[in-house]
Amino acid sequence: MLSSAVKLDLLIVGAGFSGLWLLNRACREGYSALLIESDRIGSGQSIHGHGFIVAHPTVGPWTPTEAQAQQVSTLVSRWREMCAGSGEIDLRRVRILSEQPLRWQLPVLANSGFSLRRWLGLRRKHEPAVVERSGLADAELPASWHSEQRGGHMDRLDGFVIDNRSLLEALVWPVRPYILHSRGPVVLAGDGSVNLRVDGRDPVVLQAQRTVFTAGTGSALLGSVPLHIWQQSLVMLRGGQLPDDVFVNAVDDSGRRRFNVTSHRDAEGRVVWYLGGGNSDVSSTVDGEEQIEQVRGEIERYMPWVSLAGTESACISVQRAAARLRDAIAVLPVVKQIDGFITAWSANVATAPLLADEVMELLRADGLHPSAADLRAVDGWPAPELAAAPWDNVKSWLA
Questions:
Q1: pLDDT of residue 58
Q2: pLDDT one-digit tens code per residue, 65-88
Q3: DSSP 3-state assignment of 129?
Q4: First to last CA, the chain
Q5: What phi-psi label fits residue 46: left (phi over 0), alpha (psi between -120 and 50 degrees) or beta?
Q6: CA torsion sign, 344 to 350 to 354 to 356?
Q7: CA 112 centroid distance within chain
Q8: Within 10 Å of residue 177's Cβ, how many Cβ atoms?
Q9: What is the C-alpha to C-alpha distance for residues 389 and 268, in angstroms, rounded to an integer?
């Protein structure tokens, strides 16, 4: 049977933040565009992020050019405009979880001399911390931080924290007719077209002037962008007496990320702490229960005033990927084009608008002008479902 063919300006592969953002921008500027996804929307790295929208990268060395510094300096205000309903995309549907995310330089452990256990990252569960503090006072902090046991240096991060799933919903809403489910991974034909298949429908050939891959680790197969790929073991704590106002990026005295905590509510209204950061980048030999024990010990050591009694724990493994520039992980978007194919990586959710800027500028520089497309062949095509929040997708919690 001969397949129907659709000719269009732009085909986007991958329904994470980057792909959805780019689809919104392309449609708004009049380009005929479709996005295809073989899994659920946001099911890769997007739904598993922490939602920090901050003005300065939190990982990696960074020496910005003047233009990059200008872009980053306006990033938070750009997001705020969109969350208020103005700007390039209407993000009024996005839930802002905290307007006061914190950067916490952790207190130095009381026993600060060399030990093999500390060198290996195996500190004792209840090893005390020196209670010396600086920075913000209790009156300037959320209630959960009001404790004489809190040490270290506390500052505000310039930005805010969003609920990632609500951002996915907001990005999907205006462009849902152009998001199509694909059965299996995308395979490029010799002429660069894509054969779109799904159960119950005849296949359709998509012939795009430009194809953009924003599909996370799956784009590694293209080889156009050097990648750093690793596993993260992310821990969640649920219930008990956990406060719901903790949004912090904790670093050690050298500035290296130790852990992030964001607070959420699950489908039944229980408080969930979602923990990531440097301590989630563990060896594959560390199993989930070991990771849970280490992370709970870290919280008990640095936040002893917070009771973990009655909380349940879970651990999920997430494959992460980041573009590499020389010997460092890129902290700003990386966009590469080979012939008519573009691979685009945003360093994190906050920089997704910058990625879309780069791709749209690339299209204009190539002289690709917006044009209409006949999309009747994909009318009523099944759309992928939206991924559930990580804590609502866990089947087994440990008491």
A1: 52
A2: 777 777 788 899 999 999 999 999
A3: strand
A4: 56
A5: alpha
A6: positive
A7: 34
A8: 14
A9: 13
